[in-house]
Write a structure and sequence with these properties.
The chain is mainly alpha-helical and about 200 residues long. Helices cover about 70% and strands about 0% of the residues.
Length: about 200
């Protein structure tokens, strides 16, 4: 970036570049040089906006967690429409077919980033924890509407759904599972609870 030229929304430009690198090459390829090269900016730009590269990665992950929160609102608003299985299948597919799966790998592979994120978000693995909260909240609304059994253990169902979907998507390398595979997992997990 030539000196003296203002860059509009540098943070988002750097986050978008990080996402592209992460999707294309994985967590090991995510370096400050790779991000700034992908963004087409000078390396110093990243360090003007973030304390260090780990700080950048933490802020990047937090930004992407914000997308899960938006998805959670949409999922709760879908309660009472369609079927519970269809709503969960669509949500889990959207979640893990997106950058979320790669971000989980990034968080797991970088101890310093994971530690900093836990200080901000609490325990558990960031992204998976928020995704579990999203499913738990949705199942709670569906239980209130009578579409999930009143005695359904949503505290157990939510992490089971997230874990099963994560394994399904992570096991497929670069080929995501078919919708029918995700639906089969969801149907199996909630078989005794859907009304």
């Amino acid at each position: 970036m030539p000196t003296g030229i203002a860059l509009r929304d540098a943070r988002e430009q750097l986050f978008a570049a990080a996402e592209r690198v992460l999707l294309r090459e994985g967590a090991n390829a995510l370096t400050s040089r790779a991000v700034t090269t992908e963004a087409g900016v000078a390396k110093g730009l990243l360090h003007r906006h973030f304390a260090d590269f780990d700080d950048f990665l933490v802020q990047f992950v937090l930004d992407r967690i914000g997308r899960i929160e938006a998805q959670a609102i949409a999922l709760r608003e879908s309660a009472g429409t369609g079927t519970v299985v269809d709503n969960l299948t669509r949500t889990l597919t959207d979640l893990f077919a997106s950058i979320a799966l790669k971000i989980v790998g990034l968080v797991i592979s970088r101890d310093a980033v994971r530690t900093r994120l836990r200080e901000v978000t609490g325990g558990g693995i960031p992204v998976l924890r928020e995704a579990t909260d999203m499913i738990r909240s949705y199942l709670g609304v569906e239980r209130e509407r009578g579409r999930v059994a009143a005695d359904a253990d949503i505290e157990a169902l939510a992490p089971t759904l997230i874990g099963a979907a994560h394994l399904l998507f992570a096991g497929g390398e670069d080929t995501p599972p078919a919708t029918g595979e995700v639906e089969k997992v969801v149907t199996t997990v909630i078989a005794d609870t859907a009304v």
